[in-house]
Each structure stands twice: as structure tokens, then as C-alpha cells.
Amino acid sequence: MSSQAEDVPLDLPLTVLGSVVLPGIEPAACLVRRYARALLGPGFPGLYELTVVASELFTNAVRHSRSGHPSRENGHGHVTMTLLTGGGLLRLELADQGGPGTPRLTRPGDDGESGRGLQVVDALSLAWGAERRGSGTVVWAEFPWPGCTVPQAGG
Fold first, then answer.
1. Is 70 exceeded by the pLDDT of residue 92?
2. What is the per-residue pLDDT across 60-89, written as a single tens digit (0 to 9) for each?
3. What is the per-residue pLDDT across 97-107, written as a single tens digit (0 to 9) for each?
4. What pLDDT does residue 6 have?
5. Is-contact 153 9, C-beta < 8 A?
6. What is the 3-state secondary structure (H, E, C) of the chain?
7. pTM for the full predicted model
8. For the CA atoms of 103, 3, 51, 87, what is the dihedral angle to 10 degrees?
């Protein structure tokens, strides 16, 4: 979980704006972006940042969980993307079918070819984190909801 997550209250009432189940294949990342644009509208402030983060988290779910494993009964698994709002925040959640662990921020070497995605998520979102739900993993990221002030922890 990002160190930023401690700044966001966990007891916010959230309303689901929309949810979609996508196939666990990397080319479906374009559907994640398309769904967010359709749901929020092309003029939504921060839409670019949200779609970049959604794409990254979706790709990670496919690469690092059972959602993208090709030996599943009917081919690949699935990833569920949900957008929620409440308390001045827009929350993006991507739920996969579980894997060996939960995502964590790393610092790859200069010559590393991967491992930078969560740094992008960390830089573009207010907070992010990961938690186990049942046999799966949910990775979430939060963004400001236009026109609202984000509540501060402890206040």
C-alpha cells in the first residue's frame, strides 16, 4: 500500500458510478480507457491521469494474477473495473482473480525493463493501495472529484 494511503479516510460512503467485467487479456486495456471516458465524459478533469492509471492497473492484473492465466477453463479469466465516488473523491478499483501476493511499490534499476508502473500510479493518483477480497485482489486508486474538497485525515 502506498504511503499516501494513510492520508485518506477509509470510512467514506461511496456510490458506484459503474462497473464492467473485462476479459483477462492485455488488449482489453483499451476497453478500460474507453469505459472510463464513456462513463465520466471526455471533459472530465483528470480523465487522462485516471485512464493511464486504469490501464496500468489492468495490465498488472492480467500479467500478475490468475485473471490473465491462459490455462483457465474457458481461456483467460477476467478483471472487474469499478468507479465509485464519495467524500470528494473518485475511486477506481480493479479486482482480479488473485495471485501470489499484492502489488507493492519497487524501485527498479536504471536498466530494468519493467517495474515502473506503480510509480506512475503513485505519481498520478492521490492515494492507492491493494487488499485481498476473498480469493482475489483489489487494487484501488483515488483522484479528486471536480468541485469538491478532499477531506483530510484526522480532521
1. yes
2. 999 888 888 766 555 579 999 999 999 889
3. 988 777 766 67
4. 47
5. yes
6. CCHHHHHCCCCCCCEEEEEEEEECCHHHHHHHHHHHHHHHCCCCCCHHHHHHHHHHHHHHHHHHCHHHCCCECCECCEEEEEEEEECCEEEEEEECCCCCCCCCCCCCCCCCCCCCHHHHHHHHCCEEEEEEECCEEEEEEEEECCCCCCCCCCC
7. 0.80
8. 120
The answer to whether 79 touches 86, Cβ cutoff 8 Å, is no
91, 84 in Cβ contact below 8 A?
yes
Give the separation between CA 128 and CA 147, rounded to whole angstroms: 21
Task: Judge whether 58 and 32 are in contact, CB under 8 Å.
Answer: yes
Which cell numbers in the block locate residue 129? 493501495
Kindly calculate the radius of gyration of the chain based on its CA atoms and give it in whole angstroms.
15
Q: Which of 95, 69, 68 is closest to 81 using CA atoms?
A: 95
Among the ranges given (4-18, 31-45, 80-94, 120-134), the one the predictor scored with the smallest mean pLDDT: 4-18
Query: Quick one: cell of 117?
Result: 508502473
Nearest to 135 by CA among 103, 105, 95, 104: 95
Write the burial class of residue 43 (CB in 10 Å: 0-12 exposed, 13-18 middle, 19+ buried).
exposed
